[in-house]
Amino acid sequence: MSKIGFSYDSFRGQCVMLLVGALKGLGGTGTRQEVLGYIAERHYFDIEAEDRLPFATDIRAGPRWELLMSLVVPACLRGGCIRETMEGGWRLTRAGAELYSRTRKLLREGTFDPHLCFLWTREFKKRLVPGYEPQPGDRHRSTHLYEVVRWHLADASPS
Question: Rounded CA gap, 154 and 148, in Å?
Fold first, then answer.
């Protein structure tokens, strides 16, 4: 469980690591588009065909994988992992960098298992754990992932 309350292997926890990892890779700051571009260009998010489909919500319409990434931003802001910049981008904080480093260390030590992280590609897993190799028992994403996301969105909506 991270400082922001998500297990590392939940879809939200995986998105948090992608977000703070991208900001770390971008030198600590980046706009939403730069962060998403960084993740997409390096093939860190395991984008499947359904992830590219629009998912219209009250938040915004856009590819589903981008919505998943957007869902964790408020928690990262509240948890102190990132801060908004004057230019409208995000800055990785010391707490965010520590969360990334601590999680990477736990993955490398074997306390956390990268094989459980179904949204991360082999490339991102190897960034975190250089010796990572896929295994037949790797956890695959649920076919109901976006139903779960829709449920979380509905649960978070004001009544």
Answer: 10
Is the Cβ–Cβ distance between 148 and 142 less than 8 Å? Answer: yes
CA distances from 83 to 31, 77, 129 (A): 11, 6, 27
Tally the domains of the chain: 1
pLDDT tens track for 102-124: 999 999 999 999 999 999 999 99
In-domain check, residue 105: yes
Backbone angles phi, psi at 158, to 5 degrees: -65, 140
Q: DSSP states of 109-140 as a string?
A: HTSS-GGG-SSB-HHHHHHHSTT----TT---
- Domain membership of residue 4 (yes or no) is no
- For residue 28, the enclosing domain spans 11-156
> CATH code at 130?
1.10.10.10
